């Protein structure tokens, strides 16, 4: 079995867990590969591993059976960008805080690898959101390095402390609304537990085939989030006092000119997340959001 391990930055106390992960995989006689970022993180910790190769090309990555993401939800989002259209199943080991996506606790590493090799899992297809623009750029200058898709959300936001912006929004070419706000979020079902939720958006089951359009601090208090089918094409025209505004896909942001035409739609490929049989989205909601607890005491 070919497995690549991906991760970004770690505190010193996580070194034993990383060593344990490699050791457990080696005990299963897996062919272990490291992403360049994970190799650098190990070097920064002073962790030395043997018998592991470093992935340097997408062609090498394409023959992987699984990619293990070690970190928090942000690292798993980065792993989605790393895997891209290859649709390699991803496993999230959580060394962060929230863990909506990376659901395996670091103390359960050995058990998780055992379950993986015994094939006691399912693979969930998660919808991605894709960004199109009218910018005619060469490959080296494409927005977001050519990986213009995200697992959680696409966001338009004002820059710094500038005044609010106006986002004229269209669904399949039909005018929806003009949002006078600090910004606007278009969230996937996966992203409904993230930024959209903090701005008053609804929670959506991962299998739902929808997008959620959620304003950020709208000027008109009667404006509310709206749920639309994920086969919709959503386009925008932006107005504001500033010549530039921010757009983001998950945790990646860049500034663009207000004249740029932006369109989002469902990406052609999906993110494949490995879920073990004891995993439940609703259990995760209750645990992470403290549902069912009497908070009055």
Shape: globular
Number of domains: 2
The share of residues in extended strands comes to 25-35%
Low-confidence stretches: none
Q: Briefly note the structural class of the backbone.
A: alpha+beta
Rg from Cα: 20 Å
CATH hierarchy: architecture of the largest domain: 3-Layer(aba) Sandwich
- Remind me, CATH topology of the largest domain? Rossmann fold
What is the highest CATH level, the class of the largest domain? Alpha Beta
Distance between the termini: 51 Å
> Would you count the extended β strands for me?
20
Any chance you could write out the topology, listing elements then pairs?
Blueprint: E1 2-7, H1 15-27, E2 31-34, H2 36-45, E3 53-54, H3 58-61, E4 66-71, H4 73-83, E5 90-94, E6 104-105, H5 109-117, E7 121-126, E8 129-133, E9 149-150, E10 153-157, E11 165-171, E12 174-181, E13 183-187, H6 195-198, E14 210-216, E15 226-229, E16 234-239, E17 244-249, E18 252-257, E19 262-266, E20 271-276, H7 281-289
Parallel strand pairs: 1-2, 1-4, 2-3, 4-5, 5-6
Antiparallel strand pairs: 7-20, 8-9, 8-19, 10-13, 10-17, 11-12, 11-16, 13-14, 14-15, 16-19, 17-18
Task: From the structure above, extract its key features.
297 residues, alpha+beta, Rossmann fold, Tumour Suppressor Smad4, 2 domains, 6-stranded parallel beta sheet, 6-stranded antiparallel beta sheet, 7 helices, 20% helix
Account of the protein in words:
With 297 residues, the chain is of the alpha+beta class. The protein has two domains: 2-127 and 271-289, Rossmann fold (3-Layer(aba) Sandwich), CATH 3.40.50; 129-266, Probable inorganic polyphosphate/atp-NAD kinase, domain 2 (Tumour Suppressor Smad4), CATH 2.60.200. 20% of the residues lie in helices and 35% in strands. It is built from seven helices and 20 strands. It has helices at 15-27, 36-45, 58-61, 73-83, 109-117, 195-198, 281-289, and strands at residues 2-7, 31-34, 53-54, 66-71, 90-94, 104-105, 121-126, 129-133, 149-150, 153-157, 165-171, 174-181, 183-187, 210-216, 226-229, 234-239, 244-249, 252-257, 262-266, 271-276. Helix 4 links the parallel strand 4 (66-71) and strand 5. The longest helix has 13 residues, at 15-27. The radius of gyration is 20 Å and the shape is globular. It starts with a strand and ends in an 8-residue tail after the last helix. The model has no long low-confidence stretch (mean pLDDT 88).
């Amino acid at each position: 079995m070919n497995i690549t391990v991906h991760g970004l930055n770690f505190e010193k106390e996580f070194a034993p867990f990383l060593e344990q992960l490699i050791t457990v995989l080696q005990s299963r006689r897996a062919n272990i590969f490291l992403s360049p970022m994970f190799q650098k993180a190990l070097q920064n910790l002073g962790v030395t591993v043997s018998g592991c190769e470093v992935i340097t090309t997408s062609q090498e990555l394409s023959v992987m059976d699984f990619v293990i993401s070690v970190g928090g939800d942000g690292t798993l989002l980065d792993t989605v960008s790393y895997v891209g259209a290859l649709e390699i199943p991803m496993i999230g080991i959580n060394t962060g805080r929230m863990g909506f996506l990376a659901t395996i606790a670091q103390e359960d590493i050995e058990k998780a690898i055992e379950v993986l090799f015994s094939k006691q899992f399912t693979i969930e297809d998660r919808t991605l959101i894709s960004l199109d623009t009218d910018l005619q750029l060469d490959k080296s200058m494409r927005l977001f390095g050519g990986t213009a898709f995200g697992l959680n959300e696409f966001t338009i936001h004002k820059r710094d402390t500038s005044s609010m912006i106006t986002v004229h929004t269209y669904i399949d070419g039909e005018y929806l609304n003009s949002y006078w706000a600090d910004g606007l979020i278009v969230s996937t079902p996966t992203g409904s537990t993230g930024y959209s939720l903090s701005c008053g958006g609804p929670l959506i089951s991962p299998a739902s085939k929808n997008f959620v359009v959620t304003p950020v601090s709208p000027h008109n208090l009667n404006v509310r989030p709206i749920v639309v089918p994920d086969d919709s094409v959503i386009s925008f025209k932006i107005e504001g006092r500033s010549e530039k505004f921010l757009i983001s896909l998950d945790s990646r942001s860049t500034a663009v000119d207000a004249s740029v035409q932006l369109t989002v739609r469902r990406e052609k490929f999906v993110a494949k997340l490995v879920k073990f049989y004891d995993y439940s989205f609703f259990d995760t909601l209750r645990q992470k959001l403290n549902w069912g607890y009497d908070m009055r005491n």
